[in-house]
Amino acid sequence: MAICRCKERHSNPKGRGKEYIIGIEPVGQLITSSICGRTNCENPGLIWLIKDEFDQYQNGTRIFSFSTNYSKVKVI
User: Fold this and answer.
1) At 65, is the secondary structure helix, strand, or coil?
2) Residue-wise pLDDT tens digits, 3-12
3) Are the beta carbons of 44 and 34 closer than 8 angstroms?
4) 35, 40, 47, 49: which sits with the fewest CB atoms below 10 Å from its CB?
């Protein structure tokens, strides 16, 4: 599942048994509601995708769910 992490302090995340391979900008980067998911961080975030999601992205998918499925994000 996709996660959101800022590129300033928390880029290239390591998941529990998941390898995040690329960070994609959400729609509205810099003026966005996609904020880094790390505690006490309020920086705009990139959307990090695992391999299967990146394959979907390359095939045109632009909306991804976060691990909790409470919300989704649209990427460029």
Assistant:
1) strand
2) 999 989 998 8
3) yes
4) 40
Q: How far is CA 59 from CA 5, 9, 18, 67, 72, in A?
A: 23, 30, 21, 21, 18
Structure tokens at 45: 């975030």
| Contact of 9 with 41, CB cutoff 8 Å | yes
- For 16-30, how does the pLDDT look when each residue is reduced to its tens digit (9 = 90+)? 788 999 999 999 877
Contact between residue 71 and residue 2 where contact means Cβ atoms under 8 Å apart:
no
Write the pLDDT tens digit of every residue in 29-51.
Answer: 778 889 999 999 999 999 999 99
**Pair of tokens at residue 19:** 């390898």
